[in-house]
Structure formats: C-alpha cells, structure tokens
C-alpha cells in the first residue's frame, strides 16, 4: 500500500514538473521574451495629437507614435495594443506589467531615467505656453505671466516647467487635451503643453484657431520608457535604426510635422 502511494505521489510530482515547464515563467525570462511569448506589445498612452489620437468618428488609434509602435511591433512579430493610462501613474503601470512601455511623446527626464530604462531620443520637443492669440503680445516673457492661471497635465514635463518658471496658480488635469480645453473654457488663462501638440491642435484650420504660442519654456527630447533594465530597449533602438535608415521615420515625421533627432541622411 505504501509503495502504491509513493508511486502515485511520484506521478503527481512528475506531472507538476512538466506542467511548470510548459507554463510562462515571467520572473526568469527576459522582458523581450515575455512580450514575444504573449504576442502583444502593450503600449501605455494618453490621447495626444499628433502622437496618439483618434480621428473624428473613428475607433482606431493613429498618430506618429501609434504608427511607429505598430512598425516596431511588426518587426518583433507581435501586435501593438494601445491602453490609455493615468499619466501620473505611468511608472506604476509599467512595473505592474499592465503595460510594456510608455510610448506617447514622453519627455526624457531624470525622473524617467530613475524609474525606467529609456530608449535613444527620437523627436525634438519643447514646452510652450498656449493662450488666446490676442493676448500673446501682452505676455512675451515668463515673468510677465506670473499672475496668470495655468493648466498642466498632471505629472508631465509641462507641470515641471511651470514649477521651474515659478508659476504658482497652476491646476493639474488629466492630460494635455484637457489642459487646452481649460483655456478655451476660460477656467485657465493659459496652458503649458508640448510644442508637438500645440502645432497640431492650435492655429488656422484647427478646433483652436484663435489660440497659439510664442514662448518656449524648455527644449526637450522624446524617448520610449520600458521596465528598468529591460532588454526591449536595445531591441527598439535597433529597429528604430532600421526605420531611420530606410526612410520610414522621415516619412512619419513629414506626415505628422515633427522634427527627428536624426534623419535618414545620417545613415
């Protein structure tokens, strides 16, 4: 009887061992292998033209970063899946594996380098002060704007720029689109957003035709954040070099009116 029980237990242990071998071991495998294994690259974004947004009446994401991520995912042999996140909690989402990367016109900062591993920069950016065009002449400098009410995206480079400029009357909102709406509704006098969004969303032919900017508070670069020490970073850099060399990145930059850090001419 004891011998039979021992044999049965041995069989259970062997079965468990084989089951374990067949399951995904996300603790021991590399980040890149984990992503390839599940077949999806989950990209954390906010709605932010021209990087990630939806055309009116469409349910599909488009934009520079959307197309860029899709091309990288294709070369990885996986599908890009876009998930809207709370920007202020982006690194928590990344660590929890709710997303695999933050790919949404993300300014490279010291905080970002501390909380994640970041790719080589790919697009030039700046933080600009957007307000009604007829008020621009009254506020040519940051000092002249000290008494204005500002809207910024929570946890963003715009929020950091407001602090560095010494602006005190600042309201943090969900995302940059909301910051712009705060200005148009009169809840704020101005907002601080990325120049890429300002160029896409304000001025003639846009929904914010009477708004614009003249002051750049900072000069920055965009990067893609992955989990700390993730081998996905090196793979994205490698694929990006390929997309730069074959002109794909230049085509996307021209389509969405962005300035690349490096163009195809450098290859």
How would you concisely characterize the structure shown here?
By secondary structure, this protein is α/β, with parallel strands linked by helices.
| Helix count from the secondary structure assignment | 10
Rounded to the nearest angstrom, the distance between the terminal CA atoms is 74 Å
Overall shape: it is globular
Give a short account of the largest sheet. 9 strands, mixed
Uncertain segments of ≥5 residues (pLDDT<50)? 1-26
Strand tally? 11
Q: What is the C-alpha radius of gyration, as a whole number of Å? A: 23 Å
* Element string (H = helix, E = strand): HHEEEHEHEHEEEHEHEHEHH
Helix content: 25-40%
pLDDT averaged over residues: 90
Report the sheet-strand fraction: 15-25%
Secondary-structure-based class equals alpha/beta
């Amino acid at each position: 009887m004891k011998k039979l029980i021992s044999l049965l237990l041995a069989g259970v242990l062997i079965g468990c061992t084989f089951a374990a071998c067949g399951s995904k071991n996300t603790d021991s495998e590399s980040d890149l292998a984990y992503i390839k294994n599940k077949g999806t690259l989950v990209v954390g974004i906010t709605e932010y033209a021209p990087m990630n947004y939806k055309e009116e009446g469409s349910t599909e994401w488009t934009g520079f970063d959307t197309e860029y991520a899709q091309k990288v995912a294709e070369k990885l042999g996986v599908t890009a899946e876009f998930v809207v996140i709370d920007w202020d909690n982006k690194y928590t989402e990344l660590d929890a594996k709710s997303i695999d990367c933050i790919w949404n016109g993300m300014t490279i900062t010291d905080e970002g380098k501390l909380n994640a591993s970041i790719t080589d920069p790919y697009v030039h950016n700046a933080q600009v002060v957007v307000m009604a065009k007829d008020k621009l002449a009254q506020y040519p400098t940051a000092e002249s704007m000290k008494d204005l009410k500002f809207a910024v995206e929570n946890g963003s480079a715009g929020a950091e720029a407001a602090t560095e400029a010494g602006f005190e009357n600042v309201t943090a909102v969900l995302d940059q689109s909301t910051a712009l709406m705060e200005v148009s509704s009169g809840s704020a006098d101005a907002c601080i957003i990325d120049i890429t969004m300002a160029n896409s969303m304000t001025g003639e032919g846009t929904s914010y035709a009477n708004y614009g900017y003249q002051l750049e508070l900072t000069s920055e670069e965009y990067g893609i954040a992955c989990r700390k020490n993730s081998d996905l970073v090196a793979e994205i850099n490698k694929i990006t070099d390929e997309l730069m060399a074959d002109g794909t990145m230049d085509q996307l930059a021209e389509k969405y009116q962005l300035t690349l850090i490096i163009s195809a001419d450098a290859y």
